[in-house]
Recover the amino acids of this structure.
C-alpha cells in the first residue's frame, strides 16, 4: 500500500472539514468505489473516487437554495477571520454517516440536510 497524493479535484468552496474515507461503496449506476467524501463551506458534499479514477466527482450535492437556504457570511458571526469568506458545512462525517452509503443526499429533509444545519 502506498501513501501519497493520487488526484486533485475542484471544489465550490473551502474544505475545512476532514475528508471521510469509506471503502467499497456501491454507487448506483457506477459500481463499487473506494470513496472520499468532502464537505465545503459552500454547503456542498462531494463523493470522489479515492483511487483517483476519473476527473469528476462520483456525485455532488449542494444544500444552497437561494433565497431561503444560503451559507452564512463570515462577517455576520462577529469572527470574520476564523472561517472565511462564508460558513457552511464544518464537519463531513456527521453529514455522510447518517445517510445510506449507496446513494447521495437528496432533499432538504434528508438526514444529511438535518446534520448540516
Amino acid at each position: 500500500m502506498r501513501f501519497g497524493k493520487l488526484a486533485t479535484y475542484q471544489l465550490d468552496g473551502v474544505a475545512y472539514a476532514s475528508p471521510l474515507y469509506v471503502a467499497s461503496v456501491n454507487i448506483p449506476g457506477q459500481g463499487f468505489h473506494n470513496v472520499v467524501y468532502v464537505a465545503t463551506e459552500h454547503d456542498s458534499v462531494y463523493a470522489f473516487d479515492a483511487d483517483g479514477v476519473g476527473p469528476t466527482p462520483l456525485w455532488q450535492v449542494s444544500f444552497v437554495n437561494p433565497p431561503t437556504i444560503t451559507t452564512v457570511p463570515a462577517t455576520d458571526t462577529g469572527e470574520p477571520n476564523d472561517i472565511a469568506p462564508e460558513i457552511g458545512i464544518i464537519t463531513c462525517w456527521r453529514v455522510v454517516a447518517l445517510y445510506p452509503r449507496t446513494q447521495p443526499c437528496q432533499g432538504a429533509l434528508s438526514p444529511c440536510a438535518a446534520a448540516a444545519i
The longest helix spans residues 111-116. Residues 20-116 form one domain. The chain has a mean pLDDT of 79. The radius of gyration is 15 Å.
